[in-house]
């Protein structure tokens, strides 16, 4: 494994930290936006509104990616369970056939 790769736990911690930072920035931006609007500073207000929209889109993209990964993992787990169930079901059928054959003899 390369020395530049971070463990999964570190990536998760980084992700949660960034997510919290974005929420904090959005909250601060909303407060500043309200203040600029009160003061009538249209140029700063428009720029802040644009920055806020970009931050919201970034947060949505991360949440969408997180949901996609969660669903993929859940689907893989379900597939494994179904394969396991089918294997067990096939073994039970083989055991039943073997038992029938032994009883006939």
Unreliable stretches covering 5 or more consecutive residues: none
What is the β-strand count? Answer: 0
Radius of gyration in whole Å, from Cα? 28 Å
Helix count from the secondary structure assignment: 2
Overall outline: rod-shaped
Determine the strand fraction and express it as a percent band: under 5%
Helix/strand structural class: mainly alpha
Terminal residue distance: 58 Å
Sheet having the most strands: none
Helix content class? over 70%
Q: How many structural units, i.e. domains?
A: 1
- Average pLDDT over all residues: 78
In N-to-C order, the SSE pattern is HH
Report on this model:
This protein is mainly α and 105 residues long. The chain has one domain (8-104). It is built from two helices and no strands. Helix 1 packs antiparallel against helix 2. The chain is rod-shaped, with a radius of gyration of 28 Å. The mean pLDDT is 78.
């Amino acid at each position: 494994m390369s020395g530049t790769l971070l463990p999964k736990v570190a990536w998760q911690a980084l992700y949660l930290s960034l997510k919290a930072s974005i929420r904090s920035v959005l909250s601060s931006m909303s407060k500043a936006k309200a203040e600029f609007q009160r003061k009538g500073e249209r140029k700063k207000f428009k720029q802040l509104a644009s920055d806020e929209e970009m931050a919201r889109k970034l947060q949505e993209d991360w949440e969408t990616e997180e949901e996609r990964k969660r669903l993929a993992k859940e689907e893989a787990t379900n597939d494994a369970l179904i394969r396991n169930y089918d294997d067990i079901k096939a073994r039970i059928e083989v055991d039943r056939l073997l038992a029938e054959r032994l009883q006939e003899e």
